[in-house]
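Quick note —
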Amino acid sequence: MPENPDNLLKKIKPSRILFPIIIGLGVVGYLLYKEFDPKAFSMLDFTWFSLFWIVMSFVMMALRDVGYMIRLRILTGNDLTWKKIFNIIMLWEFTSAVTPSAVGGTSIAVLFLHKEGISVGKSTAVVLATSFLDELYFILVFPLIILLVGNSDLFIIGKDVINVDTISFDNRYFYFAFIGYVIKFLFTCLVAYGLFINPKGIKWLIEKVFLLPVLRKWQNGARQTGDDLIVASGELKNQSFLFWLKAFAASFMSWTSRYWVVNCLLLAFFFVDDHVLIFARQLVMWIMMLVMPTPGGSGFAEIVFRDYLGEFVTPASLAISMALLWRIVSYYPYLFIGAIIVPKWLKRIS
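Predicted structure written out below.
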């Protein structure tokens, strides 16, 4: 078992919502203080049309969670009720929101599933499968998006535009995205090889890597990870193509819905004529957030939104306000829902 209840309580206690909220609102507050333009803000025309698209942004987030629930139902073989699946997804999202983006909630998700009646081996298999499917979405869609966007300067922003036929390697966000994509690609290849081809070989590699002096204190955990991979491989590698197709379709629905949130929010207040580019930049933003050390990418996400999507906001001084609205829709709800669900869940399993 990767975690005991005491360690779990420390990692997902509701009080941990304060840290990401303080970081995120602190950054937004500072940027609003520096950049807020009352005259520009007064130009926003809040109408029933605006309300419709704001509601649609919440609908997109709901569809995102529905996609996750369908996928979890498929991967667990319909062994869990929809209510239990909903609780697991909310616990998982809460954990992801209060831990660094590179860590996420997967390390604790095995325990969430096990406590709802799924065996440890199958729980491990399900969590690894969800990670694999998420990363597969990124590594497949990212090159496709670049092809679709073409020379629309995915990595060239505002004043950085010099030559629209090339990618600006001077732009710092290109390197964030490149590093994030490489990490995702290597992780996906490693998990795929371990799950479907040679789990014992990957276990051997993991154990050798964690013999390094700087990593030796995590050696026992690495050995357990290798054992989990072998168990997961036995659970998953004999599944049919249709099984994986349905699971990936649910993943595609989930992530694509999430990326349409910003499109809906921009439509609420501004004229938008390049939805594909906005979608593409959101994909790149989430890849960049992988390498951020703050919980849920707090602070960094708001700044990247201003810089990376600010050109779609007119006037540009409203960009940080839109970033705050985006986080209110796509991030903060999970903190508060988790703060309600976590105590009840911990009480029930104890």
